[in-house]
UniProtKB/TrEMBL annotation:
Coiled coil: none annotated. It comes from Schizaphis graminum. The lineage of its organism: Eukaryota, Metazoa, Ecdysozoa, Arthropoda, Hexapoda. PANTHER family: DUF4371 DOMAIN-CONTAINING PROTEIN, PTHR45749. InterPro entries: Znf_TTF (IPR006580). Residues 51-134 form the TTF-type domain. This is Zinc finger MYM-type protein 5.
Length: 206
């Protein structure tokens, strides 16, 4: 999940963004790198301690937005890369490497309006992410349900047409005794077909 991998993609699709968020930031430790250390830039290097921020009450907060690229030895803001429209290039495209001022720069970036807005969008997306498969599945069920209704109504239409029977009656309200051949057959079918029964109930309510 090196951030430079998806930097090369011109436009990230919603599916790609979801995948990147699931992977999370690239936060290797020094022991995971060649020579077991972060490369130096001007005698200064990145510190894995920066993956966390010490809060005033002494608690440590994980910087889930900070992502390191082992490939180019620079850090990026994952949240701003995905949703930051006004963030500085150093955090979204060029990469930040002024490690001599690293700690101060990190705190400075995470308090900018652009970063806060991007992080809020990430949090909202993460909250809705588990719901997406449920919504898609529900849509599939609704499509299948509608297709079955249409299919059965087409069969009624074909039956009436084949026997040259009139479709409509003089009074077509659902409360009428004689609603016409089409609606009468729909009501008859509703006694045996659950989907048509639901369809008729919905029509009567509306």
């Amino acid at each position: 999940n090196d951030p430079t991998i998806f930097l090369k993609i011109a436009r990230l699709t919603p599916e790609m963004i979801n995948m990147i968020l699931k992977l999370g930031p690239c936060q290797p430790k020094a022991k995971d790198l060649p020579n077991s250390q972060f490369p130096k830039v001007g005698n200064r290097c990145f510190h894995e301690a920066w993956y966390y921020r010490k809060l005033p009450d002494g608690k440590m907060m994980h910087r889930d937005w900070l992502t390191y690229s082992p490939d180019i030895n620079r850090v990026f803001c994952l949240h701003c890369m995905l949703f930051g429209k006004k963030s500085k290039k150093a955090w979204v495209s060029d990469g930040f490497c002024k490690f001599q001022n690293g700690s101060i720069s990190l705190m400075g970036h995470e308090t900018t309006d652009a970063h806060v807005e991007a992080s809020l969008k990430v949090k909202m997306r993460e909250l809705t992410l588990p719901l997406i498969p449920l919504i898609v599945e529900e849509q599939k069920k609704q499509v299948a349900f509608n297709r079955e209704i249409v299919g059965q109504l087409i069969e009624i239409t074909k039956y009436l047409g084949y026997h040259s029977l009139a479709f409509r009656g003089h009074r077509e309200h659902w409360s009428s005794i004689n609603k016409g051949n089409f609606k009468d057959l729909v009501e008859l079918l509703a006694k045996y077909s659950p989907v048509i029964s639901i369809h008729v109930s919905n029509l009567q309510i509306s």
